[in-house]
Write a structure and sequence with these properties.
The structure is a single chain. The protein has a single domain, classed as Glycoside hydrolase/deacetylase (TIM Barrel, Alpha-Beta Barrel), CATH 3.20.20. The protein is α/β, with parallel strands linked by helices. The longest helix has 33 residues. Strands 2, 3, 4, 8 and 9 form a five-stranded parallel sheet that branches. A two-stranded antiparallel ribbon has the order 1-6. The chain has a two-stranded parallel sheet with strand order 5-7. Helix 1 crosses helix 7. It is built from nine helices and nine strands.
Length: 275
């Protein structure tokens, strides 16, 4: 009888410890998300393991698999990566670390097709292409934060992350009176800690459900390849990532947009995102 009682007591203690740990982790996450003040101590228990965003493409225009870890963290911290599976909405986004001479043409194509996009820019882009950023804002596009120096966020201290995000935020606001609210982690590298922390800075993390190797300047001159990659992988709720530094993208964008519309899809602004 005593031995049985001891066993039950041990089992009870193990269960109690297990649920205590769960409760503590839940409380830590809740305090991180709801704290009005940014306190580094709130983030000490969150993982800073670097995660490289990746997706597994599906056939027949089905939504891709973003992976269980990506999904768990993005859902927990209200990140955007894949929209409603039942609605034929496409959210077009561009990454811009520097200007290669193609953005004006891209903006013209977007205007002619009545499509609004989101442009994630760095401080270098803002400082060298102020007129183009101003045009983006005036034509109804969203300008997003791609940080000052395009550093991998898990490699940065919280103070450095704050500087990387908020210095660009302040600069855009001072120049245009425009308040940025979406960010894309440079290189698609993030951790639970960095996503939680940038939330407290007022930012929503935006990843993607489609991208291809368009960023490589040495891989231009493959317009048919680019069109096939984009059109073969169109899917409901897609957040499409293209690089505006790609000459191919600037040349094929008009045709691609028209064909996607012909397929019954609607381009939507990220402000209209539906999960």
């Amino acid at each position: 009888m005593r031995k049985t009682t001891k066993i039950f007591l041990i089992i009870f203690l193990i269960i109690a410890i297990f649920f205590t740990i769960i409760f503590i982790n839940f409380y830590i996450r809740k305090s991180v998300l709801t704290s009005g003040q940014v306190n580094s101590e709130n983030f000490e228990q969150l993982s800073n393991k670097k995660i490289e965003w990746g997706i597994k493409r599906a056939d027949n225009h089905e939504q891709p698999d973003v992976g269980s870890t990506n999904k768990k963290i993005m859902d927990e911290y209200q990140g955007l990566y894949l929209g409603n599976k039942d609605k034929k909405y496409i959210y077009l986004t561009f990454d811009l670390g520097y200007e290669a001479g193609y953005t004006s043409k891209i903006l013209e194509v977007l205007k002619n097709n009545n499509v609004k996009a989101t442009f994630f820019i760095t401080a270098h882009y803002l400082n060298t292409q102020e007129a183009l950023v101003k045009q983006m804002i005036e034509e109804g596009h969203i300008v997003g934060n791609h940080t000052v120096n395009h550093k991998s966020m898990p490699s940065c201290s919280l103070d450095t992350i704050k500087t990387e995000v908020m210095d660009l935020h302040s600069a855009v606001y001072e120049k245009f009176g425009y308040e940025m609210k979406y960010m894309r982690p440079p290189k698609g590298e993030y951790s639970e800690k960095t996503v939680a922390y940038t939330n407290t800075l007022g930012y929503t993390t935006v990843m993607w459900s489609f991208a291809y190797d368009d960023w490589d300047e040495k891989k231009q001159g493959r317009e048919e390849y680019g069109k096939k990659k984009i059109l073969d992988n169109v899917h409901n709720g897609e957040i499409m990532l293209l690089h505006a530094t790609s000459k191919d993208n600037s040349n094929i964008l008009d045709e691609v947009i028209k064909k996607i519309k012909d397929m019954g899809y609607e381009f939507r602004n990220i402000d209209e995102f539906e999960k």
